[in-house]
Amino acid sequence: MKFYRKHKKTSIFLLVILLLFVALLISSRSLEGDAYFSPVDEQSDLTYLADKELLTEEDYQLIFRQTGLGKPAVEKIFAESAEPVVQLITYQNDFYRQPIIKCKGLNVDMQASYWVTGEEHLYNEKGEVISGFKIADLQDGDILLTKSTHTLFWRHGHGGLITDSKNGFVMEAPMIGYSAALYRVRHWQTYPTFIQLRLNNADAEQRSEIAAWAKDYLMGLIWQPYAGFPDKYNEKNLSSTQCSLFIWQAFYHFGYDCDIGGWLVAPQDIANSPLFEVVQIFGVNPADIWSGFNLGGL
Length: 298
Fold this sequence. Notes:
This protein has helices at 2-6, 8-33, 57-67, 71-80, 84-96, 204-217, 245-253, 267-271, and strands at residues 100-107, 113-123, 143-146, 149-151, 158-164, 169-172, 181-184, 194-199, 222-223, 240-241, 276-282. It is α+β, with helices and mostly antiparallel strands.
């Protein structure tokens, strides 16, 4: 007891260090576990779908588990393709292909690279970044999320909002100090994890209106760590944002609160919001698209 009292501050300091080490160890294991999901089911024969006039909910669930395509994407493929099952099998093969994944420091414009923040991409055997899948159905107002961005041991992910699907542009706030701007959608196809969401019970016109408002009023806002404090949405003072906060701000302006709670809006919050349906996933568990540690939910 006397020893403890004499060395109380040192003991507390060592205890804090030990707890941080354990937390980082647990987080690092979670970090690696979410880098990419390999399907656990064997590839099913989907050719039987060609003989069906109408797909059942069981069919849609099977297709989702085998290809990562949600009901909206499947419906579009069957409505527009002359050989929809052939297309489904192409998505299935991409979904089951074992990728080469490498992590590097986040780099937006080949000028700045953050060693503390990294992101994974898909590579071929020559060491070149490649596109690992096709996006089946892209519409204005769709949300794109990835788990492939992490800072230290928190896999916080990244988000974007489709503002010009016709020309393939997504609005993003890429990292600290950078403005929310438009980027090509194609770079999202190089991530080993991909989630595409669409607002439930809203027509294309309403979703396009949300995207247009974001482009008009949130474009150019600087990514700042203090953005959203103490008020996540102050229409009279929209001066800064973050990668998922601006998505929340855009939908909140139209009466949709897609934050499931906590002190900040994280991509994981948006992924788990009941406001959205899944259009497509890649490298993500169809049964649980995003769980685990979430700093934004604290």
